[in-house]
Fold this protein.
Amino acid sequence: MKTAHRTPVADLTKGWVSEFQDFLETRPTHDPSKELRSLALSHFQEQGMPHRKMEAWRNTPLTLLEEVGLFSTTSASKRPKSEISEWVEALEKPEGDWQRLVFIDGQIDPGLSTLSDAESEMEWMAFDAALAEGSQYAPIQERLGQLADLKTDALAALNTAYMQGGVYLRIPASCQNERPLHLLFVSTGSGSLRCPRNLVVAESGSQSSVLVEHTVMDEAHDLTNCVTELFLAENAQLQWTVLEHASESAIRFSDVHAYQARDSRLSLQLLTLGGRLVRNNVHVALADTGAEVDLNGLFLASTGQLVDHHTEINHAMPQGRSQQLHKSVLTGNARGVFRGMINVSPHAQKTNSSLSNPNLLLSDQARIETQPQLEIYADDVKCSHGSTVGQIDEEAIFYLQSRGIGRNHAKQILTRGFINEICDRIPNKNVQKLAYGLTSETLESFVNKEETI
């Protein structure tokens, strides 16, 4: 499929539908997921790509896709393997004793990975390997697609039709995983549609920490459309941190769905640094009594970038707790969108839930659309939500200037303090340090582009 100068979004839909049979021919003959893929494609074809007449996409136009053009579903990377390896090895890594799985354009790279089946406390399979082995597909089939709704979510349907790469991870009951897991996804840039799929099952009483890092080589402009489904059994504890840092031309869509059983604990952090068009959806179902989630988000964006975070937390049973803090820092003519929904069902008495969305605009041209929402159908709850949009306090800048600090440096110090509140909430200290470094680099890039900060 050739890249056009400008391709209407409707033609993107037709293109991905027409390529599907060719894609299936590249799959293993006995791929047990073909029936599910075909069903997903039909749902995608019925819905088409999201558009601005849909409430959830009203502030997130997909016209940037038109400028980039058609994305092939079969293109391979043209970069030499040695170049990719050198680039990956040069990336800053979290300190400490980490197990690491590296995925290049969705496919696992054993040479760059450091985790083997023999040494892992967890059971894991590269997603494609599990699909190729029919007998290995059974544990995946039991859970796959339970949380991502193919009938109402076109991008989840597109991912399911073309899912390639990613990981299936099972954390055994009562497993106390002392070595955190690092999942590194690298896009090399071949003008392709990439659809990694992650499926995680944290069994009863297990404890684990996972860092999911998405990055892009140079000015790669692949479209990454990732879906992750997390299942937490009774008393399971999972720390799931997603760190995205991409080139200014990268386009990324992501769905994270979590299902929590009784007394489970989920700590979910989502940091987005860069990308031309980024849309992240997070859906959490607190499905049983006493389930808790801490959800923290941050995005930084500058000129020409649009970042959108949508969250939805559903309290279904009593004594659940959810805490959300989402921040954004925008400069230049960047655009940001945040929509957070908390839904409390009639059965969810004694719910304790809060949602806060402070936003910092560093220029007069930056814009943020924010919409925190509550839907409460129970009468014995403690819920709060709020949003603020503002600029750096001039009195605080003057105070620092009076002590010999230049104006731009003063603004950077105050912005750094605003960001650090999110970084400080990352449970793993080594991931905290990584987040501090990458957010500092992003702020420095704002200065280098001579944007207002």
The mean pLDDT is 89.
